[in-house]
Amino acid sequence: MSEEPMTPVTVVVPHYGDPQPAVGLVKALQMQEGAGPLQLVVVDDCSPVPFPDSAGAAVVRRPVNGGFGSAVNSGAALAEHPLLLILNSDLEISPTFVADLLRAAAPWQPAVASPQVLGHNGVPQWVGRHFPAVRHQVIEWLTPLARWRHLPLLHEMVGHDTRCVDGAVVPVDWVMGAAMLLPTGEFRAVGGFDEEFFMNSEEVDLQRRLRDRGVPSVFIGTVAVTHEGGGSSDSTRRRQWLVDSRKLYAEKWGSPRTLRAGLAAATVVNLAVNTVRRLAGTPVRPMEVARTEWHLLQDSQLDGPTMDQAVR
After folding, report:
1. What's the N-to-C CA distance of the chain in angstroms?
2. Confidence band, pLDDT 50/70/90 cuts, at residue 230
3. Alpha helix ranges (H) inside 7-107
4. Please, which residues bridge with residue 219 across strands?
5. What is the C-alpha R_g of the chain?
């Protein structure tokens, strides 16, 4: 018996920065085996190094850099197929990746499905996650716990769903946005990504709105991709985007005041622990670290007491 034909897919790849990873990904998509029709759309998000015109891929050139969600929305507007596959530009995929993901996700559709995402060191990037809670973010902010974050308990405490291991296929609260397959119609029905999010948290916000429509999220651990991650921006900027996005998420789905108080308390704890470490001879600068953390909160408009008040 022959297999049923694959559902046609529109692939959207946002690009910013070095175009070579995106060029390589497009070539890999053009050579996919058994996937059926693929519409390829690359969105150049006003990159300082433009994505070159490429045969077989439509290129959307945005006049301003609006971030991940707005770039995907621009590409999804051109989607002609029932399924939408959103891929970070720095992914490495196998020759049968799309077909493998389509087959594995088919029993769950309509759903948001993500493969296992591995770093180049082979370490999973914790694709499946629990809906964000203030306790997750406070524990993540507590730097004294960093030495134990390889433990499953600590992963759960920062919001990672530790059931999501290689080979597992499980429904989860949400999946990270590096590689997401979902129905184009459902994406459009909820208005796509909220473009107020510049970077981070846009995918969980989208999946919460889809969940309200009965569309689940599923981790597909039988399929994997490799993800470089963070290649288009510096670490300080990425951390500020993360804090900003969590503040906006709290405004929509939680309590900004509770988040502000929790992170401020965690900063005070970090200061106290770092002071003890400094007295014990560890080369750490407690006040400098605390001021950096507080400036992140202030810049993200998680307003509260002044730095001097917070560390007295």
Report:
1. 74
2. low
3. 20-30, 68-76, 97-105
4. 114, 170
5. 21
Distances (CA, A) of 193 to 23, 86, 190, 232: 24, 12, 8, 20
Q: Is 194 left (phi over 0), alpha (psi -120 to 50) or beta?
A: beta
- One-letter amino acid at 206 equals L
Q: pTM of the full predicted structure?
A: 0.89
CA pair distance 217, 193, nearest whole angstrom: 16
Instruction: Encode pLDDT of 9-45 as tens digits.
Output: 999 999 999 999 999 999 999 999 999 889 999 999 9
Please provide residue 227's backbone torsions phi and psi, each rounded to the nearest 5 degrees.
-125, 125
Give the pLDDT confidence score for residue 149 in this predicted structure: 84
**Which residues is 142 bridged to in the sheet?**
none
**CA–CA distance, 140 with 143 (Å, rounded to integer):** 7
- Listed as own residue / partner, the contacts of 22-25 with beta carbons closer than 8 Å and 24 or more positions apart are 22/51, 22/89, 22/90, 23/51, 23/52, 23/54, 24/92, 25/87, 25/89, 25/90, 25/91, 25/92, 25/93
